[in-house]
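Internal tracking record. Fields below are filled automatically when a chain is submitted to the structure queue. Please do not edit lines marked as system-generated. If the sequence contains nonstandard residues, flag them in the REMARKS field before resubmitting.
Queue: standard
Priority: normal
Entity type: single polypeptide chain
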Amino acid sequence: MSSRKKYTSEFKAKVALSAIKGDKTIAELSSHYQVHPSVIMKWKSALIKNASNAFNPSKSSNSSKNDNTLSLNAKIGELLMERDFLKKTLKMF
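SYSTEM-GENERATED OUTPUT FOLLOWS
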């Protein structure tokens, strides 16, 4: 069984920009880049949808990274508390 292909964000952007330019049809792009046409259309619509973020520094990906970092730090704190509790509890026995 074959695994799914993973494409870099740079490759996705390149293909989506080619689709937006309209120099080639989606079918031509599909055969050239070896990507299914529906995937190209999905990348194209995602690029169009998120294009405004390229010019808005306040909504950059850094804010989502900060949110992820905060949630990961909270989880680490929770796990450390559980570990310390279990260490103390197991010493009693």
